[in-house]
Amino acid sequence: MMKFGVCTKIENAPIVHAAGFDFIECTVVSLQGEQSDEAVRDIMARYLESPLPVEAFNVLLPGELKIVGDSVDEARVRNYLEKALERVKRVGGETVVFGSGKARMVPDGFPRARAEEQIVQFLHWIADVADSLQLTIAIEPLNTSECNIINSVPEAASFAKQVNRKSIRVLADFYHMYKENEPLEHMVEHRELLRHVHVSDSRYAPGMGNYPYADFADCIRRANYDGRISIECLWNDFQAETAAARRYLSQVFES
Predict the structure, then answer these.
(1) Residue 151 carries which DSSP code?
(2) Which of 6, 121, 150, 237 is deepest in the core (most CB within 10 A)?
(3) Chain centroid to CA 236
(4) In 12-167, at which residue ranges do the beta strands (DSSP E only) sit?
(5) What does the alpha-carbon distance between residue 244 and residue 102 come to, in Å, rounded to a whole number?
(6) CA–CA gap between residue 216 and residue 203 (Å, rounded)
């Protein structure tokens, strides 16, 4: 059954809950994977007391924790993943988004083939943790102004297929697809790997812009997608706009 959520900080959970959403999507970095359990005790408590399930997480890596280039610290990355994903699981997370444009950016002059190898290697590292925790890792294509690798659903799907691990799947983000003029049909073509969806509308809340939502919803239906859809956008009036966006998503996807 399709579920709707909002990407925001845990402190906004009561507002998201009141607006009628099914879950909230927070950041992995907020769980501070390089800090001790004692240091994050209050943060963890806030998550565990949320009035809404925290079923999805984005912003997987701190920008300076590189996974591509000459300064990749394997031990540090793997330790971070182990601690951070264990905390995601402990607070009820099920899906983790791998966007992290700064961490995966290919440095100028760095061999593309080597960068692709490093991303495959990283996906194996994260799958080593995620498989045993029964978490899903959704590779997020980002537009080319934010990152220079994995910029389309087919590119994300090709990495997922190459890695071929049960936890590694793909995300489709309406904003990034629209910005890249990417065919929405790609969601249908790669439906077997599609496990998470992000939406916005001209960078703001759904219903506030001119994105072709009827076409997007049609592709979602034809992809037989019935998972989670999270709003990831900029807000002017969070409380008012979340309630309006929830009504709009109902009209678009549930009518």
Answers:
(1) -
(2) 6
(3) 22
(4) 23-27, 56-58, 95-98, 136-139
(5) 32
(6) 15
